[in-house]
Amino acid sequence: MLASLALVLTTALSATAHYTLPRVGNGADWQHVRRADNWQNNGFVGSVSSPQIRCFQNSAAGASQTYNVSAGSQLTYYVNPNAYHPGPMQFYLARVPDGQDVTRWDGSGAVWFKIYHEQPTFGQQLGWPSLNKGSFPVTIPRCIRSGFYLLRAEHIALHSASSPGGAQFYISCAQIGVTGGGSTEPPNKVSFPGAYSASDPGIQININWPIPTSYRNPGPPVFQC
């Protein structure tokens, strides 16, 4: 009886510890963000080779609206309810080709460049600034070209990542329109799937013991103007 009760409680706590990334700026949930496949169950992507690793969608269903932002300015990406697991927050951008519809473009190919990744603090345990947070500010590089982009938000939960496939990826993609940009074409573009391997040191890692003294974020280096 006690074992059954413990299993029920563990399952319930695990489910409530999951989350979505449904909103940017002052919009509503899934207004500017493409509705992810976990919008009802708060689930996660467990395989880096799954097509869902791109925007957590089995099909590229666009959002109803696009969020406009000036190059060099900051916008806020929201988590619902909070990022309950330890691990890094990362952001990528992919520019929609001129003449294509941002609501229909699927983001395939080596088109993604990283604009932010989070590093932990080190000590008796890894400290993650994103832990239990409900929102994340991200700055759009001032030098990138104006146009429409997909902004990919990714929180990688590492609490069970000591074995292959143990990391949990919480992902969504917002549709944004960037104005007042420059002319720089970012290097080191990657594709999703393709950017990560299940054995990457920032994906397969035991964060509990022995306590790591460094952390290598998966994916390319952060682009800087």
UniProtKB/TrEMBL annotation:
What CDD domains does the annotation carry?
LPMO_AA9 (cd21175)
- One GO process term, biological-process aspect: cellulose catabolic process
Which cofactors are reported in the record for this sequence?
Cu(2+)
Give EC number(s), comma-separated.
1.14.99.56
Q: Name one GO cellular component term.
A: extracellular region
Give the signal peptide range: 1-17
Q: What class of enzyme is it?
A: oxidoreductase
Q: What is its main location?
A: secreted
Locate the Auxiliary Activity family 9 catalytic domain: which residues? 26-215
Q: Where in the cell is it found?
A: Secreted
Q: Which InterPro entries match?
A: AA9 (IPR049892), AA9_LPMO (IPR005103)
Under catalytic activity, the entry for this protein gives:
[(1->4)-beta-D-glucosyl]n+m + reduced acceptor + O2 = 4-dehydro-beta-D-glucosyl-[(1->4)-beta-D-glucosyl]n-1 + [(1->4)-beta-D-glucosyl]m + acceptor + H2O
Q: Which GO terms describe its molecular function?
A: hydrolase activity; metal ion binding; monooxygenase activity
Keyword set, alphabetical order: Carbohydrate metabolism, Cellulose degradation, Copper, Disulfide bond, Hydrolase, Metal-binding, Monooxygenase, Oxidoreductase, Polysaccharide degradation, Secreted, Signal
Per its UniProt record, what Pfam families does this chain match? AA9
Q: Which family does it belong to?
A: Belongs to the polysaccharide monooxygenase AA9 family.
Record's protein name:
lytic cellulose monooxygenase (C4-dehydrogenating)
The top of its lineage is: Eukaryota, Fungi, Dikarya, Ascomycota, Pezizomycotina
